[in-house]
Design goal:
265 residues; alpha+beta; Arc Repressor Mutant, subunit A; four-stranded mixed beta sheet; three-stranded antiparallel beta sheet; 12 strands
Length: 265
């Protein structure tokens, strides 16, 4: 590797299968103290060949993304999370899109993390993080991306996450739309849905059951009925956590229907 950072140096890095270096690695390659690396990198940052998504990490930009001055978030999120020492998975609408629900393309990359990570915008890439309790125990899977693999919530965890946080899913009607698409496109597995339900609140399980029924995925919803029935004596929960506690009670799911659900299917 050359001891000066040029476009050729970045291309050599990419050609050898490396997409990033830490500040310490860059300092060793350049033969300069670590506190000089940022100054050396600035010309390449300005020209769109390198960017820094986190302190101490430098990511090389392939030629096809240099007008962006950044790569797509999926291409560097695993490297960034490893650098920060966080467990994570791509979730909510971002995971839904990867599982085939393309009704509404998310404008941000939504990522669940085990400990706080601040949101950040890097050029046109917008990263939004949310802490998820017990993340390490939640089912997730690896998906291939151009730079390797990323962790993504399973389809079953994805629908539960959306039901738990309707605001992160674009509102309850959009969540219903995406749940319906995932029930069809990702072929939600009833047994895995029951297993995933153990990691979520009763309110979330009830809400998801109701939404599955609303999008005519009753065969999948039926798998959750015994889970809900075993705790039927608990007070009802709200369909929309952000709306007033008014509306009719759905007796089967024990959900107070306090808002209209209008899925676009």
């Amino acid at each position: 590797m050359p001891r000066t950072w040029t476009s050729d140096a970045v291309d050599q890095l990419l050609a050898h299968g490396r997409t990033s270096v830490t500040t310490d690695e860059a300092a060793a390659l350049l033969g300069v103290p670590a506190d000089h690396v940022r100054v050396r990198m600035q010309p390449l940052v300005h020209s769109g060949m390198v960017f820094s998504p986190a302190r101490g990490l430098w990511v090389a930009v392939p030629p096809e993304y240099r007008t962006w001055k950044v790569t797509p978030g999926l291409n560097f999120i695993d490297t960034m999370m490893s650098h920060l020492g966080r467990d994570y998975y791509v979730g909510w609408l971002s995971a839904a899109e990867l599982h085939g629900a393309a009704h509404q393309r998310p404008q941000v990359l939504q990522v669940a993390v085990d400990r706080r990570v601040r949101d950040r915008d890097i050029g046109r890439v917008r990263l939004r993080f949310a802490e998820r309790t017990g993340l390490r125990d939640l089912p997730r899977q690896q998906r291939n991306v151009p730079t390797g693999q990323v962790w993504v919530s399973t389809p079953e965890v994805t629908v539960f996450d959306l039901a738990a946080d309707p605001d992160l899913g674009g509102g309850i009607s959009n969540v219903a739309t995406v749940v319906g698409e995932l029930a069809e496109e990702a072929a939600l597995d009833p047994q895995r849905l029951v297993e995933a339900s153990e990691h979520f609140s009763l309110a979330t399980v009830r809400r998801l059951g109701y939404l599955l029924g609303a999008v005519e995925a009753s065969s999948v919803a039926d798998a959750l009925r015994p889970v809900v029935a075993s705790r039927h004596h608990f007070p009802p929960d709200l369909l929309s956590p952000a709306s007033p506690a008014v509306g009719d009670l759905d007796p089967g799911w024990r959900v107070r229907v306090n808002t209209e659900v209008e899925p676009d299917l």
